[in-house]
Design brief:
Two copies of one chain form a homodimer.
Chain A lengths: L5 H12 L3 E2 L2 E2 L6 H16 L3 E4 L5 E4 L6 E7 L12 H14 L3 E6 L10 H6 L5 H6 L8 H8 L14 E9 L4 H4 L4 E7 L1 E10 L3 E2 L11 H19 L5 E10 L5 E2 L2 E10 L2 H18 L5 E10 L2 E2 L2 H14 L4 E6 L4 H5 L5 E6 L15 H18 L4
Parallel strand pairs in A: 5-6, 5-7, 7-17, 8-16
Antiparallel strand pairs in A: 1-2, 3-4, 4-6, 8-15, 8-17, 9-13, 9-14, 10-12, 11-13
Helix pairs in contact in A: 1-3, 1-12, 3-12, 8-9, 10-12
Chain lengths: 399, 399
Amino acid sequence: MAEIDGARLLRDLQTLRGIGTYETGVHRPTFSAEDVEARHWFAAQLAEAGLAVEIDGIGNVIGRDPAPGRKLLIGSHLETQDHAGWLDGALGVAYGLEIARSLGGGIDVAAWADEEGHFGSFLGSRSFCGLVTEAEIDRCRNRAGLSLRDALQQAGFADRPRAMVDPARYRGYLEAHIEQGAELEDKALKIGVVTAIVGSRRWRIVFEGEQNHAGTTRMAVRKDAGVALVRFAAAIEDRFPGTASERTVWTTGNIRLEPGAPSIVPGRAEMVFQFRDTDPATLDRLTEALQGLAGEANQGPCRVTLVETGRTAPAAMDDGFQAALEAAAERRAAGQHQRMPSGAGHDAQVLAGRMRAGMLFVPSIGGISHHWAENTPDEDIVLGCRVLADAADALRVEA
Amino acid sequence: MAEIDGARLLRDLQTLRGIGTYETGVHRPTFSAEDVEARHWFAAQLAEAGLAVEIDGIGNVIGRDPAPGRKLLIGSHLETQDHAGWLDGALGVAYGLEIARSLGGGIDVAAWADEEGHFGSFLGSRSFCGLVTEAEIDRCRNRAGLSLRDALQQAGFADRPRAMVDPARYRGYLEAHIEQGAELEDKALKIGVVTAIVGSRRWRIVFEGEQNHAGTTRMAVRKDAGVALVRFAAAIEDRFPGTASERTVWTTGNIRLEPGAPSIVPGRAEMVFQFRDTDPATLDRLTEALQGLAGEANQGPCRVTLVETGRTAPAAMDDGFQAALEAAAERRAAGQHQRMPSGAGHDAQVLAGRMRAGMLFVPSIGGISHHWAENTPDEDIVLGCRVLADAADALRVEA
């Protein structure tokens, strides 16, 4: 069995950590100078490993094994959230590089562009899977207002073709990622074998009442949109546990009262709400529960409107890939692994629509992620790569 | 009995409406060019009415009857909220001017600076009552960051003395104002005789939890500051009706979740909360209720802190002044008046600490205020001035 070089893997990760260092983490937003530098550096490593490399028209870095035969694709992403961690994304692409080098064949490697959504949603992997139109690219801008077209132009990727998946080429897709939660650490486990990536439904919930003077408007005649909102949000917390599954998560991420002044009864209020689960039926039940709450709230003095702002479907990981990952985990870390869903989105959920897919998690210290303090013990990083390499080794020769 | 000139009164109000016109209302923030123009115009009218006029070092316009003897002081304010109505403040000072002209003696008139709080809180009337220190003036800034010192300098008022009340001079203080609520209109009444001006307690309520990824953090381990906030705010709505009096009002004016992103469990949250009542004991009971709710909330996963950001004491209006206003109202509008508290703050609550005080309300169409659509029928404006003039006529000769 081929062995990966743990020290080389850690050196690669430290090199990436040096491109856009922020505190102990990294600030490397999509198509920033640092991100472009990281993509070129990574392309050079893939080429050195003997792969045929392209950076395509959306910024994907793809290294292809030039030998004939079906391949296993391993990938993740290179850009980071703002002022974020050194492993979110980088871990998975460094694993791909190290495994391609160590196994010596049968592996393609991809660093997908903009998984973190600075410009769009899973832009690189969706482009590769034929799910991004030129019109969508025309529309995308980052928070600073820079258009994706201009960013691609500045990065030097604008005039290149976008790579498209050839499903016949691939046996499947593997992705490793830090857990971004504390479950593995809490249970003293080393490896998570992902069963499915959750789907999400995202909402903007709008409450319309009547703006008034907070001193002169009696309680009995108020149509306070803020009160309608807090009652609604509290009712979600009371109702959802009875409808949700054990793994469902739901979050009110933002609330805005208008005009937001101390002495004015809010005439309008908005909340940003989402829920996630791996089971489409559960997502449907929660949608019905939310609509039910809105119906009840509309009996009150304010008007409540649910606006669905987005949804992603849950993506099941392939049974055979889960089995291969579990067998490798048991060999390398007996009894220190579990199957678990992914509560966060990953490129694997996009690739799963085109080929068999599997995902592996390594622990996150304290569950911290999307923050520069994000970290994983070196030995866990190396162990994760050994497990993924063993699974890849088994899967690259499978039928 | 002296009669006021209704047409002249309406012309004065229309003249003021022309200084800083915005839509059908007025934008005349404290010490803006328009506000300073309005103060000079008003001073000129008072002088023409035979009063000795000064604009003092805080911007108060004060006209004094030069004849010997005790006086009745009538006032309100000239500046407006941003993009607000033409009557809030202007009505009361125009009444003072018209009554001084009509009664021909015994009346002083004041336009207090910055009742609307662009720089401070009731700055002009509090200065007049000896409640504003030079240090407070040093600290005051408006929302644009302009210091009160610089604003006074630009207005040309900086090097003047601040006028101070001589309580021996005054029989008392009268102020008329639009209701800023819809109670008079709803009951088809023309005059409100104010019994007391509510006191208020103002709070910032802070919730501290733990910021986390909204996908990977299981519900059971979350410390969601936003959830703590909405449960707390909803509990206020459930509990306060049992503790409040019939006239108490309470308002959550603003809510902020941090960081406020759709996919991040809020680690910190804040709400701006206030309640108002005319009864100090009720304000104390509500404070205890709020503290009780905070104690209960602190049993949960997040830490709750109540920060009192300000309070004003309730101010009772003088019984004799109420009786004089009610008698005048009954004479001019039999059966079309009521006694009522003021839910909004007014300069009269400050003056009430130094002399007997009374307040009169005229209806606000639709209860609209602090908005350019604010209005009152012309006939109600004139009627209100007749009632105030009759009461002033009676009170100026009283012991």
